[in-house]
């Protein structure tokens, strides 16, 4: 989780304790849900009719500092007690160690909104399942600095992994953290380095046979490009816990979902994927999600308005009417709120959006019927995400 | 050669002359108190005491008793000088710091008296190094006036239990708070850092607890930056005694067993910190 974000969100639920993180540009989200059976004792507290179960977030570094040395933890710590004390404004972590020694840490926390990426693995056209080791062995061939990788399905059920190289039209994105600068206004035209000459770029491509996977159910000819960094983090966890990894993906632009399942643990990692600009049709299909004919959903990529809508809605898992994409400042004369072309949005520089990378925080969307404008359409998104201001 | 590489003949009159087959017996102990550049050395018939102080608040002493040395002769009642501890340690470890089994650096130390430099003759594998380190007027040392009759609370712990705790102390906290009490929490180390507060509790019946004599509940705070260097002494030691007096002065005494199984002591004295305002727990 620390590979993803600087803050750790703790949310006790009836079905277990959920630990979550999101990155600053909201294009990567992970959650670890520990079922009650994982614990010796699990008391999530009681939610009243008007109150939800209390949740909070803490600084990732502070939390990790308590579990600094894993080998010594294994040797000396018998039990760990986690108490959330809202009234004292403290998250208490108590380690019961050898020799009767007790280490108590009282961490300051912040209240927070529910951090939830909306995604649905059922809606993904393709699914792969492999032992973590197979994927780890594959990924090791790519340099550690590689930012993005493309996963594709090929003939004969083969699966390919290839390092992503920006095409001539775009700017170089290799070697840089893709989602590094929240709040930096994106410029309409890419600036510094000229695009790398394709002939001089090293390309690594790896093919995996179908039988390396535990299951393969993919739409032929599909491919997605996502960030390797966050994925590597999950991969090392999967390897260490010896769990098979399932990859759910759909079209470019739609999030890719990695899952790990165990009797007492459910892990999700949701990463935004690069939208396929090449296939940009001018079709007013969905709200700027992808230009391939997409199923019914509109995926807003505006977290702020979505979160606002979440707060103000009557609640319920269906979610509020999905706001459309005010990545652009509203220009009613120029655009139809119902159809948002990605190119327009890319060019319309709006401060506070993620930089000119084509990744978008797509997955904080909700399912809704197409063509329905949202009440939050006119909301101008200029500020950073709401959690950033706390 | 301008001077002889041979150690002086035993006929010459030196205020202090001592030999040690394994210089590490001295250097490892000195490292445990090396948090300032300079130290004051006091040699008496009982042995050598090296003192380091800081901020008029903390004092560390390393004791190497006479019987650790193969030869220890002192012509005056006591000999005292100030010397650069950094340079002394560099010289003692001039043949390197890694301890290969079977090899050791032999040391002969000579001090002619007031105003003379300290001479060190170091030999390993037939190679001899001669060092001359200038000495200075000794500083006046703090006297914590800490004697066993004034002790209010005392515990003796196996160092193993404290080592990790000290190494992982939250250094964003300005203070280390020590609570000693006949009741719970018995012995508690607390820090108040940026992330929040942390408490380490040792129960009186813990296997680590060799002795527990607490008569009164005392909570005292000490500047963590002053106490952190004691971690080195803790790492070397097998046992540590923690004592406080009525004013809250802290005495930490570390029992260190050297490679040959001989026992030496290092102690730290620290004043309580008066200026810290009450931190919320």
Written description of the protein model:
- The complex is a heterodimer of chains A (390) and B (281).
- With 390 residues, chain A is α+β, with helices and mostly antiparallel strands.
- Among the domains of chain A are: 105 residues, Proliferating Cell Nuclear Antigen, CATH 3.70.10.10; 115 residues, Proliferating Cell Nuclear Antigen (Box), CATH 3.70.10.10.
- Chain A has six helices and 17 strands.
- About 31% of the residues of chain A have low confidence.
- In chain B, the strands form three sheets. Chain B has a nine-stranded antiparallel beta sheet.
- Chain B is 13% helix and 44% strand.
- The N terminus and C terminus of chain B are likely disordered.
- Chain B has five helices and 18 strands.
- Classes of the chains: A alpha+beta (390), B mainly beta (281).
- The interface between A and B is medium-sized, with 20 and 20 residues.
| Sheet having the most strands of chain A | 10 strands, antiparallel
Q: Give the CATH architecture of the domain at 126-167 and 202-274 in chain A.
A: Box
Query: Within the largest sheet of chain A, what's the order of strands?
Result: 8-4-1-2-3-17-16-15-9-13
H/E element sequence of chain A: EEEEHHEEEEEHEEEEEHEEEHH
Give the distance, in angstroms, between the N- and C-terminal Cα atoms of chain A.
20 Å
User: How many structural domains does the protein architecture of chain B include?
Assistant: 2
How helix-rich are the residues of chain A, as a percent range?
A: 10-25%
Shape designation of chain A: elongated
Classified by CATH, the class of the domain at 126-167 and 202-274 in chain A is Alpha Beta
- Described by the principal axes of the CA atoms, the overall outline of chain B is elongated
């Amino acid at each position: 989780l620390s590979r993803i974000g600087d803050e750790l969100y703790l949310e006790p639920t009836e079905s277990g304790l959920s630990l979550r993180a999101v990155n600053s540009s909201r294009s990567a989200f992970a959650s670890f849900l520990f079922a009650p059976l994982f614990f010796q004792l699990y008391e999530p507290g009681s939610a009243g009719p008007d109150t939800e179960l209390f949740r909070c977030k803490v600084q990732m570094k502070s939390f990790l500092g308590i579990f600094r040395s894993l080998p010594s933890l294994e040797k000396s710590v018998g039990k760990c007690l986690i108490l959330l004390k809202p009234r004292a404004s403290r998250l208490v972590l108590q380690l019961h160690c050898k020799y009767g020694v007790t280490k108590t840490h009282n961490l300051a926390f912040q209240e927070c909104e529910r951090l939830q990426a909306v995604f649905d693995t059922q809606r993904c056209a393709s699914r792969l399942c492999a032992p973590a080791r197979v994927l780890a062995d594959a990924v090791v061939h790519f340099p550690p600095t590689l930012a993005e990788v493309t996963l594709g399905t090929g003939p004969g059920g083969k699966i390919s992994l290839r390092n992503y190289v920006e095409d001539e039209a775009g700017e170089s994105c290799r070697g840089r953290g893709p989602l590094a600068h929240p709040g930096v206004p994106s410029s309409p035209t890419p600036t510094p380095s000229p695009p790398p000459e394709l002939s001089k770029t090293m390309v690594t491509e790896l093919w995996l046979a179908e039988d390396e996977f535990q299951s393969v159910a993919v739409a032929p000819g599909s491919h997605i490009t996502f960030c390797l960094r966050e994925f590597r983090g999950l991969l090392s966890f999967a390897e260490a816990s010896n769990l098979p990894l399932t990859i759910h993906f759909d079209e470019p632009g739609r999030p890719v979902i990695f899952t790990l399942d165990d009797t007492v643990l459910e892990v999700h990692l949701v990463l935004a994927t690069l939208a396929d600009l090449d296939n940009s049709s001018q079709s007013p299909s969905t709200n700027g999600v992808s230009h391939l004919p997409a199923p019914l959903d509109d995926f807003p990529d505006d977290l702020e308005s979505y979160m606002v809508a979440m707060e103000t809605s009557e609640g319920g898992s269906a979610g509020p009417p999905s706001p459309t994409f005010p990545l652009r400042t509203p220009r009613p004369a120029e655009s139809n709120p119902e159809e948002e072309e990605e190119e327009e949005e890319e060019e319309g520089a709006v401060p506070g959006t993620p930089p000119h990378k084509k990744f978008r925080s797509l997955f904080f969307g909700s399912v809704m019927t197409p063509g329905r404008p949202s009440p939050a359409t006119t909301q101008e998104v200029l500020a950073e995400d709401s959690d950033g201001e706390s | 050669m301008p001077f002889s590489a041979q150690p002086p003949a035993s006929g010459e009159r030196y205020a202090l002359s001592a030999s040690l087959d394994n210089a590490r017996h001295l250097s490892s102990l000195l490292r445990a108190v090396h948090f300032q550049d300079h130290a004051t050395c006091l040699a008496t018939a009982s042995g050598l005491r090296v003192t380091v102080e800081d901020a008029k608040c903390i004092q560390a002493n390393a004791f190497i008793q006479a019987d650790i040395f193969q030869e220890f002769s002192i012509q005056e009642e006591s000999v005292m000088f100030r010397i650069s501890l950094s340079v002394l340690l560099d010289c003692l470890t001039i043949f390197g710091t890694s301890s290969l089994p079977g090899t050791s650096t032999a040391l002969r130390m000579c001090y002619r008296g007031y105003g003379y430099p300290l001479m060190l003759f170091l030999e390993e594998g037939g190679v001899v190094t001669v060092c001359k380190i200038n000495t200075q007027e000794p500083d006046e040392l703090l006297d914590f006036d800490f004697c066993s009759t004034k002790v209010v609370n005392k515990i003796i712990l196996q160092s193993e239990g404290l080592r990790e705790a000290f190494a992982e102390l939250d250094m964003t906290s300005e203070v280390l708070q020590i609570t000693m009490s006949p009741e719970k929490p018995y012995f508690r180390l607390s820090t108040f850092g940026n992330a929040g507060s942390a408490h380490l509790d040792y129960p009186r019946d813990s296997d680590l607890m060799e002795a527990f004599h607490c008569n009164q509940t005392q909570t005292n705070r000490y500047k963590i930056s002053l106490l952190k260097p004691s971690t080195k002494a803790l790492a070397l030691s097998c046992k540590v005694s923690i004592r406080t007096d009525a004013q809250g002065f802290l005495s930490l005494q570390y029992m260190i067993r050297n490679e040959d199984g001989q026992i030496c002591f290092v102690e730290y004295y620290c004043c309580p910190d008066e200026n810290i305002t009450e931190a919320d727990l």
